[in-house]
Amino acid sequence: MSLMLGLLLCLFCTVCIFLLRLLLVVNSGPNCKPGGKGSVCVLVVAGSGGHTTEILRLMESLSPSYKPRHYVIADTDRMSEEKIRAFESAKENGSIGSKYTVHRIPRSREVLQSWSSSLKSTLNALLYSVPLVFRLQPDVVLCNGPGTCVPLCASALLLGVLGLKRVLIVYVESLCRVETMSLSGKILYPVADYFFVQWSTLRDKYPRSIFLGRLV
Amino acid sequence: MKTVFVTVGTTSFDELILTIKTPEAVKALKARGFERLVLQVGRGSVLPGPESGLDLTLEAFRFKDSISEDIARADLVISHAGAGSCLEALGARKPLLVVVNNKLMDNHQQELARQLHKESHLLYCTCSSLTDTLRTMDLSVLVPFPPAQTTHFANFLDIALGVQ
């Protein structure tokens, strides 16, 4: 009985410490300035179809200081890798020595997939995301809403909670979202360091978000 | 040759394809001086051949790697409500008529088309009102679509992350 109680107490303490660390990490975003060391390593979550097009438009606007660039796509996505490679090779012509990699992880949620099976496949995707993010150790995760970004952002937070590295989460809600936030957006809104929306109607509903007009 | 380009994106939208090639719709297009109709039909079950005996030149295909050339050659783009197609047509500064698929309920893709219609960047109708819209529409009311603020994003991020 006392062993049981002891175990429960341990578990409770661990959860409390974890949550406290998480709170500390989430609130330390503004002090984190990875640009000071000259370059910013970015993990870019490209989704399927429209998400990839949008995120590549954002990448286009960034200066060459954002390198190396690691793209992550869902393993069932055929179109995105081609788009990324075309984008990067066009970029290479401008600046020499630009560096990028493409990685694949299992998709965490197909369109119209049910809640319970989404949870299962997200946990499965998490198993692949954690080692990937721990290995790449990016300064920033940039994402715009495909389901795949949730396990990757969770892995990035875990790095911070464990005190290994503070990874900033930059989330840009898709231009398609005018009135309602996507599921990924709702999940990541409380933990993202910089959360952009592209319509003022969404900014009014989510006051912590950043609205600079249409970005893509 | 004055051209209309109809696109349904990666989905299927047979109702739109069937409506646009009805004699009434074709007549409305002819009355506006259109002589060529190009259809991108996607996964739809209707793929009209050139034989269809219409009063204007008809071309149809399912998919292409890029439809930007078709958009560039068009004088009017008629599109499903998909965000990608809408943004591509507006980005190319083409008059755009979006036809909403009523059979897709709660499709969040339509959110964007509705908002862009509110801001007068495009015209908006359903299949049942398409022919009437083609007859009565006034393209001069459309407001040009402003370019995106991509540099705002880059500048903000540079400052936030301390990039020199």
UniProtKB/TrEMBL annotation, chain A:
<feature type="signal peptide">
    <location>
        <begin position="1"/>
        <end position="28"/>
    </location>
</feature>
<keyword id="KW-0732">Signal</keyword>
<keyword id="KW-1133">Transmembrane helix</keyword>
<dbReference type="GO" id="GO:0006488">
    <property type="term" value="P:dolichol-linked oligosaccharide biosynthetic process"/>
</dbReference>
<dbReference type="InterPro" id="IPR013969">
    <property type="entry name" value="Oligosacch_biosynth_Alg14"/>
</dbReference>
<dbReference type="Pfam" id="PF08660">
    <property type="entry name" value="Alg14"/>
</dbReference>
<dbReference type="GO" id="GO:0043541">
    <property type="term" value="C:UDP-N-acetylglucosamine transferase complex"/>
</dbReference>
<keyword id="KW-0472">Membrane</keyword>
<keyword id="KW-0256">Endoplasmic reticulum</keyword>
<keyword id="KW-0812">Transmembrane</keyword>
<protein>
    <recommendedName>
        <fullName>UDP-N-acetylglucosamine transferase subunit ALG14</fullName>
    </recommendedName>
</protein>
<comment type="subunit">
    <text>Forms with ALG13 the active heterodimeric UDP-N-acetylglucosamine transferase complex.</text>
</comment>
<comment type="similarity">
    <text>Belongs to the ALG14 family.</text>
</comment>
<dbReference type="GO" id="GO:0004577">
    <property type="term" value="F:N-acetylglucosaminyldiphosphodolichol N-acetylglucosaminyltransferase activity"/>
</dbReference>
UniProtKB/TrEMBL annotation, chain B:
<dbReference type="GO" id="GO:0006488">
    <property type="term" value="P:dolichol-linked oligosaccharide biosynthetic process"/>
</dbReference>
<feature type="domain" description="Glycosyl transferase family 28 C-terminal">
    <location>
        <begin position="3"/>
        <end position="150"/>
    </location>
</feature>
<dbReference type="GO" id="GO:0004577">
    <property type="term" value="F:N-acetylglucosaminyldiphosphodolichol N-acetylglucosaminyltransferase activity"/>
</dbReference>
<comment type="similarity">
    <text>Belongs to the glycosyltransferase 28 family.</text>
</comment>
<protein>
    <recommendedName>
        <fullName>UDP-N-acetylglucosamine transferase subunit ALG13</fullName>
        <ecNumber>2.4.1.141</ecNumber>
    </recommendedName>
</protein>
<dbReference type="Pfam" id="PF04101">
    <property type="entry name" value="Glyco_tran_28_C"/>
</dbReference>
<dbReference type="GO" id="GO:0005783">
    <property type="term" value="C:endoplasmic reticulum"/>
</dbReference>
<keyword id="KW-0328">Glycosyltransferase</keyword>
<dbReference type="InterPro" id="IPR007235">
    <property type="entry name" value="Glyco_trans_28_C"/>
</dbReference>
<keyword id="KW-0808">Transferase</keyword>
<dbReference type="InterPro" id="IPR039042">
    <property type="entry name" value="Alg13-like"/>
</dbReference>
<keyword id="KW-0256">Endoplasmic reticulum</keyword>
